[in-house]
Amino acid sequence: MARSSTTPPKAQKEPGRLKQMFQxxxxxxxxxxxxxxxxxxxxxxxxxxxxxxxxxxxGDNIIxxxxxxxxxxxxGLLLFLIVLGRRAERAAYSQxxxxxxxxxxxxxxxxxxxxxxxxxxVTVSPRTQDAVYRAVGRGGVALIGxxxxxxxxxxxxxxxxxxxxxxxxxxIHLVYVGPDAxxxxxxxxxxxxxxxxxxxxxPEVLAVSNRLNSLGKNGLPIPKGMDxxxxxxxxxx
Length: 237
Known about the structure:
Layout lengths: L16 H15 L3 H23 L4 H35 L5 H8 L6 E2 L5 E2 L6 E7 L2 E7 L2 H18 L5 E6 L11 H6 L7 H12 L24
Parallel strand pairs: 4-5
Antiparallel strand pairs: 1-3, 2-3, 3-4
């Protein structure tokens, strides 16, 4: 019997954990030139501290010295992974900064401290693709403009008035993410939201979010052809 000329392709094997970490390391150092030195320092300093403490406190106890060194190596690896994860995320966001949907990617994956938001904007300019996103947290309501301030400021003001009509006693913050010098850098958006003073309790955050949903989304979807999440590097575990 003749063999079929078409054979099913083999399933692509996923890279191992170490290979994934190496790929993340390569991507990070390629786009973040200062990351290499930060990673070296993060790894070496705990080891040096472990050796110093071992020589200082263990005396002639070789086992004690070895334990201090091992603790230093483990601490260096842990700090290395923490720094690598943060710099990798920063490098990944730098690749999509300025593209439509970049703010949505950050809101979807990196919000913390009790903030919630949708990756879809509440309004989009059909001509320029500038967009406004909305986040709700203990600090109140944050309206985030994606694009130059000269174009997003009227859009934010329109949304601010709409939110203020139904939530007159809730703080409303306007945040600009774009090319302007005083705008928030994309990777700093989550920490910027976290700096707003908490004024709402958790049940009130949920109530505010439900009330805002009644406004609906009068914007257009994010333009096709750009998926910000595909540009993010896998974070080391």
